[in-house]
Amino acid sequence: MKKYLNYLFLSIILVGLPLYAWYYLSKGTQMRKEAMAELQPKAEVGHFQSVTDADSMFYSESFKGKKWIVGIIGADSARIKHVTVLKNIFKQAKEEFSVNVFTIIGLYSGELIGDMGKKLDIPRNGNWVKTYMAAQHIFIFSEDAFAIPEFYKNKSLVVLVDENEKIRKYYSLADENEIKFMARQIPVFLSLKQ
Fold first, then answer.
1. Residues 132 and 68 in one domain
2. Do 87 and 155 lie in a common domain?
3. What is the distance in angstroms between the CA of the first residue and the CA of the last residue of the chain?
4. Can you tell me whether residue 129 is helix, strand or coil?
5. Single pTM value for the model
6. What is the 3-state secondary structure (H, E, C) of 152-170?
7. Domain housing 173
8. How far apart (Å, rounded) are the C-alpha atoms in residues 54 and 174?
9. Cβ distance 40 to 55 under 8 Å?
């Protein structure tokens, strides 16, 4: 009986483990191919300029030469949740990649820009550029600046912008499935060669 157990154990090691590894490697390869197909350029960034929380100007041309994760976050009851999703993506990605984030966050009437960094607990990082706009202007501005498709209009989004100012993908921050896709596809996006 002990001899059969030894053979069984040996066959699991010699046959089972390689089959298991092959299955997950092929599944990962397939997932990467699908992500690359979805990350084909969709549109170009429009021309814009915006004032950052550090009182400097950010121009659409500033996207050139780097990959960017753009967060467009409206002033609504889910604002903190949406910023938290973006912070988690940033934390996850920055372990392996140089991550650049540009956020446009909507303000309620009477909110001060100086208070928002602390209120939303956004990292003070040179790679995270923060801008704020009045709630009624954020989506109008974003539609032109990022060629937002009809389906995503007036929603809080993440937009992936490549180093050539091409928009690669849109994700709704209100849709849990899209957030899961985003978490899987952002590493593929950040590892894409020009």
1. yes
2. yes
3. 59
4. strand
5. 0.80
6. HCCCCEEEEECCCCEEEEE
7. 43-191
8. 28
9. no
CA distances to 52, 67, 106, 176, 184 from 77, rounded to whole Å, are: 23, 29, 11, 16, 26
Q: What is the pLDDT of residues 126-168, one digit of tens each?
A: 789 999 998 899 999 999 999 999 999 999 999 999 999 999 9
Residue 33: φ, ψ to 5°: -60, -45
Tokens 């490549």 belong to 162
Q: Is the dihedral of CA 30, 35, 38, 40 positive or negative?
A: negative
Using a 10 angstrom Cβ sphere, with 0-12 exposed, 13-18 middle and 19 or more buried, the burial of residue 18 is: exposed
Residues 13 and 93 in one domain: no
Q: Could you give the 3-state DSSP secondary structure of residue 125?
A: coil
Q: How far is Cα 29 from Cα 38, in angstroms, rounded to an integer?
A: 14
Query: Are residues 14 and 56 both part of a single domain?
Result: no
CB atoms under 10 Å from CB of 1, counted, come to 5
Q: Which residue has the higher pLDDT, 26 or 3?
A: 3
Cα 188 to Cα 18, 89, 160, 191, distances in angstroms:
25, 13, 11, 5
